[in-house]
Amino acid sequence: MEKLRLKVQLACAALFNIGFVQWHSVCFPVLNCHSCPISLFSCPIGVIGKFAEVGLVPLSVIGLMALAGLVAGRLLCGWACPFGFLQELLYKIPFPKFTMPSWTRFIKYGVFVALVLLVPIFLSTASQLYFCRLCPVATIESAIPWAIISGTTNPVSLSIRLAILFGIVMAAMAHRRFFCKVICPLGACLSLMNRFAAIFPERNTDCIECGTCGKVCPMGAGREKDGFGAYDEKAEECISCLECRKKCPTGAIQLWGG
Q1: Which domain holds residue 54?
Q2: Is 27 contained in some domain?
Q3: Which of 1, 75, 148, 258 maximizes the CB count within 10 A of its CB?
Q4: What is the average pLDDT value for the chain, to the nearest integer?
Q5: What pTM value is reported for the model?
């Protein structure tokens, strides 16, 4: 399963940036910038921001994300998102590691409301505070390539974006999937439906509640004891990477329909 996931991640990274055609009228629920010169699909976060600016509700995008969330939830983050895959590679680099308190996972919901919705509504998508103008994915896939292609750019804006990108890269090297867990607004949207997803890792009766899944989960979603000695499961964070399945001593975890 680990080899299969790697192949799917590589295939998706290539597919979403195939370069030969561009279907920007179609969204795919992963964070892949549609302003990239070789992107295939449009990014749902960018579309939501543009619609918010003009006071419209993108029903087709919301419907697509709801459908994707109810079918696969954040499996898309763990199997299809190119930036999620990049973060996994960054974490393998020898670098001082750190953990983060579980409450930081709520920050991404604030990012979605403030930078994806409120900034376009009350300011505009041209504002430097708009999420897409700060997004590290957009910096890698759009800002840097277009600066090279066109030869002209706003040096202040580009410097801010590069500084944010550098900070997130450093954080991703130190904490597994830092951006996915703490910042990603698309992850916030998908996580709302994660507990109801049809495809989701589940435990069978062989589970001995050893807490191994909580220790190995890159998103802090596995079962682990809270401060009161009870087992807590943050299922909304699970990206179905199946690290828990690989390390489970009794093989109690399977990726099947809920």
Answers
A1: 2-191
A2: yes
A3: 75
A4: 89
A5: 0.90
Question: Closest Cα partner for 65 from 28, 113, 107, 34?
Answer: 28
In a domain, 231, yes or no: no
pLDDT tens digits, one per residue of 149-204: 887 778 889 999 999 999 999 999 999 999 999 999 999 999 998 888 888 888 88
Q: Do 180 and 187 touch, CB atoms closer than 8 A?
A: yes
Pick from 123, 144, 4, 147: which is nearest to 53 by CA? Answer: 123
Question: How would you write 134-202 as a 3-class SS string?
Answer: CCHHHHHHHHHHHHHHHCCCCHHHHHHHHHHHHHHHHHHHHCCCHHHHHCCHHHHHHHCCHHHCCEEEE
Distance CA 250, CA 218 (A): 20
CA dihedral 121, 126, 132, 134 (to 10 degrees): -110
Tell me, yes or no, whether 168 lies in a domain: yes
What token pair was written down for 110?
Answer: 């604030």
258, pLDDT greater than 50: no
DSSP three-state, residue 27: strand
Tell whether the model's pLDDT for residue 226 goes beyond 60.
no
**Which tokens hold the place of 202?**
């589940």
Q: Which tens digit of pLDDT belongs to each residue from 227-253? A: 544 555 678 889 999 888 888 898 888
Give the pair of three-digit tokens for residue 135.
């997004």
- Domain total in the chain: 1
Residue 233 domain flag: no
Q: Which residues pair with 202 in a beta bridge?
A: 254
Round to whole Å and give the CA distance between 108 and 127.
Answer: 19
Sequence-ordered alpha helix ranges (H) in the chain: 2-15, 44-53, 59-71, 75-79, 82-91, 107-111, 119-122, 136-138, 144-150, 155-174, 178-182, 185-191, 212-216, 243-247
